[in-house]
Amino acid sequence: MEKFDVVVVGAGLAGCTAAYVAAKAGLQVLLAERGTRPGTKTVSGGLLYSHGLQQIFPEFWKEDPSPVERAISRNVVSFLTPRQAVSLDFYDASFSAPPFNAFSVLRGRLDPWLAAKAEAAGAVPVYGVKVDSLLRENGRVVGIRSGSDDLGADVVVVAEGVNTLTSRRAGIQPEIRPETVGVGVKQVIGLPPGEIERRFQLRGMEGTQITTIGFPGEVEGGAFLYTNRDSLSLGMILNMRSLVDHDARMYEILEEFKQHPLVSRWLEGGSLLEYSGCFVGEGGYDAIPPLWGEGFLLAGSAAGLFLNTGFTLRGMDFAIESGRIAGEVAVEAVHAKQTGSAFLARYRQRLASSFVLRQLKTYRKYPKVFANPRLYTRYPEILTSLLHRAYFVDGEDKPHLRGLLKESYRGKASMLTLGRDMLQAMRTL
Q1: Cβ–Cβ contacts within 10 Å for residue 212, how many?
Q2: Strand 70-81 and strand 206-214: pairing?
Q3: Is the peptide bond before 174 cis (omega within 30 degrees of 0)?
Q4: If you placed Cys at 378, which of 193, 374, 406, 417 could pair as Cys (CB 3.0 to 4.6 Å)?
């Protein structure tokens, strides 16, 4: 049986980072990816917050070809009803200047770029490989099995995404529970030259991110839009349990969303370039599976490392950081010739002291906030009704703002309910 120091399963951001770190330290590393090339099996609706990748590759955005699209300087959160929208629009010029806060990315470009870094460091990439199972001896993971081929490893890093069949078949983590998983779907829509800048009032490589809550409503979740160089990334993440309970079809909801009068003007004249879907872990801190064991580590989405605060969707920077730490711990374990659970436990300890688990722990109750059905129906209606009454002038006397607010929430939610929901959101987010 051919043997490596480290085998990494999955060539996403976590896997490529782990492979890069381990290979750069001089280990023999195999990077196994199910797709025919990195990025072909990856769907992402989030932004790449640059701080983590910059620690590994300073000024990575200067490389040619660049692995990123636009530096996000404008962040918008919108509450939608069928024909209205209330938005919080924040612009910060410093976000579009070095060292940059966040970039929009296309994973079909970013992942191959990072995989090439791992290969240049000495990792051996193997694409189009389906890992059937983890090999075990006396309870310890000692490699992987792919078809009739067995490959040995001192440490296996599993980083193959949310639907990680490898670790699930090995009994490392339980079956997916619908309430802890979102179903994501994304379209990449091309626009003519200059249209991105014109429609979103951008200069140079500035970019915009927009997240929406509400319309079409009922189903828990929201939509997103990110500006790329010459295209838009448009998609939705909806809770699986809520989709089932409402007997809803994802593609129908997305198409209805695209017809909203605010959204349709962004897309007008665009051409569909890509259409893809994926699972997104939404269980938060309390749904994180065992992160290490005898001879293995879990990183990235396979470890449930994803956070949605309503303002930010964080998965990619968590993946990169967990991959970096996994690579470092794997190097230490191989050098010390101690690849058992007791030694690899330092992976969990370092994640706990990193921003990854600190942030997830801080926001550990966030799933409860987004499971509130009023967030997707009542509150967009109250906000749009309030502002419609405030701005609409017909010659009649208007009450004070307090009176307008009462008229807006009457019959939709009580003041007590509003107060409780607001208090829960403030405590959680």
Answers
A1: 22
A2: parallel
A3: no
A4: 374
The reported pTM is: 0.94
With beta carbons less than 8 A apart as the criterion, state whether 44 and 190 touch. Answer: no
Q: Alpha-carbon distance 28 to 83, whole Å? A: 58
Going from the C-alpha of 247 to that of each of 182, 183, 191, 273, the distances in angstroms are: 15, 14, 34, 28
Distance CA 134, CA 382 (A): 52
> H-type helices in 284-354, by residue range?
316-336, 341-353
Alpha-carbon distance 427 to 429, whole Å? 6
Phi, psi of 268 (to 5 degrees): -55, 130
Which residue, among 423, 167, 149, 427, has the nearest Cα to 295 in the 3D structure? 167
* 124-127 vs 48-49, strand pairing mode: unpaired
How far are the Cα atoms of 13, 59, 155, 263, 421 from residue 219, in angstroms, in the given order? 30, 40, 41, 19, 18
* Structural tokens at position 201: 């009032």
Question: Cis (ω within 30 of 0) for the bond into 65?
Answer: yes
Cα-based angle 378, 383, 384 (whole degrees, multiple of 5): 100
For residue 67, cis peptide bond before it (omega within 30 degrees of 0): no
Which conformational region is residue 240 in: left (phi greater than 0), alpha (psi within -120 to 50 degrees), or beta?
alpha
Residue 301 is encoded by which pair of tokens? 């989405």
Task: Quick: pLDDT tens for 7-55.
Answer: 999 999 999 999 999 999 999 999 999 999 988 877 776 799 999 999 9
Burial of 161 (0-12, 13-18, 19+ CB in 10 A): buried
Distances (CA, A) of 151 to 129, 131, 159, 203, 257: 12, 10, 17, 51, 47
Q: Which of 303, 283, 281 has the alpha carbon at shortest distance from 291?
A: 303
275: β partners: 187
Do 52 and 16 meet the contact criterion of CB atoms below 8 Å apart?
A: no
Q: What's the CA gap between 102 and 48, in Å, rounded?
A: 5
Q: How confident is the model at residue 168 (pLDDT cuts 50, 70, 90)?
A: confident
Residue pLDDT, tens place only, 96-114: 999 999 999 999 999 999 9
Tokens of 75: 């962040």
Q: For 119, phi and psi rounded to 5 degrees?
A: -65, -40
Strand partners, 156: 7, 296
